[in-house]
Amino acid sequence: MNKYYSFLMIVVIISLSACDAGRDSPRGFSLPKGDEVKGKQVFIKHQCLSCHLIADVEDNEITRELEEPIQLGRKTAKVITYAELVTSIINPSHKISRGYLVNSVDESGNSIMRNYNDVMTVAELVDLVTYLQPHFKVTPVEYSPYRNYYVH
């Protein structure tokens, strides 16, 4: 029991220390809440529809860059955080969803999304994330229904 307790304590300490990566820790980082209406305008201004689809915006005049545009907003069992959306925009190669690996990455496995860091203002980024976040709906995982089993 003593070895198990010691091992468990080491795992807990390592896990807790990983939460604060020193000066590289995201702790304390936050951006103000943006404006959803302005965020939708940013989405249109930067021609996000050339590679993405979203429920409330359509533009048949835009030239599509992907044969199968990437759907933004969906039902998910996991909360899509503000920080994850910010990271996805400023560093699209950070984490690529498994479902989009085929048509949205280059030979090296990096995202083919253009880098907007030099053309999008921080205010636009904040507004865009505020606009995008409500499109992701958290839905509980549906478990398989099991009937009662009776032993004869």
Describe the protein's architecture and organization:
There is one protein chain. The protein has four helices and four strands. 31% of the residues lie in helices and 5% in strands. It has helices spanning 2-18, 36-45, 82-90, 122-132; strands spanning 52-53, 70-71, 75-76, 137-138. It has one domain (31-137): Cytochrome c-like domain (Cytochrome Bc1 Complex, Chain D, domain 2), CATH 1.10.760. Helix 2 packs across helix 4 (122-132) and helix 3 crosses helix 4 (122-132). It has 152 residues and is mainly alpha-helical. It has a two-stranded parallel ribbon. The protein is globular, with a radius of gyration of 21 Å.
Decide which structural class fits the backbone. Answer: mainly alpha
Domain count, please report it.
1
Shape: globular
Could you name the ranges where pLDDT drops below 50 across 5 or more consecutive residues? none
Mean of all residue-level pLDDT scores: 79
Strand order of the largest sheet: 1-2
Helix content estimate: 25-40%
Distance between the termini: 41 Å
Radius of gyration: 21 Å
Beta content comes to 5-15%
DSSP strand tally:
4
Q: Output the number of helix runs.
A: 4
CATH overall fold name:
Cytochrome Bc1 Complex, Chain D, domain 2
- CATH first level: Mainly Alpha
- CATH H level, superfamily name: Cytochrome c-like domain
Which sheet architecture does the biggest sheet show? 2 strands, parallel
Topology as a string of helices (H) and strands (E): HHEEEHHE
